[in-house]
Input
Amino acid sequence: MEYFGISFKGDCWIDENGIFWGDSADEFLADIFGNSEINKITITKGTQIMISHDGIKEIELFNDKLHKVIKYAIKKCD
Output
């Protein structure tokens, strides 16, 4: 299945807030926003991605400095 330009595998769902959740079917390079140390990231197969109804894509990563999981916006590189 493809949604907003990203291929997904396995079970996908939409939560009560209208956010689409799914696991990436392919590996791809993405720009990451909101992280002062990382500009680009490789999204590996199986990475859980959340997409809002208006197409904003996010992933969750552990932030070592804050010692907690943070949502970061991503944009798939062309």
Summary: The chain has no helices and eight strands. The mean pLDDT is 95. The beta strands are 2-3, 6-14, 20-24, 28-33, 40-43, 48-51, 57-63, 68-76. The first strand starts at residue 2 and ends at 3.
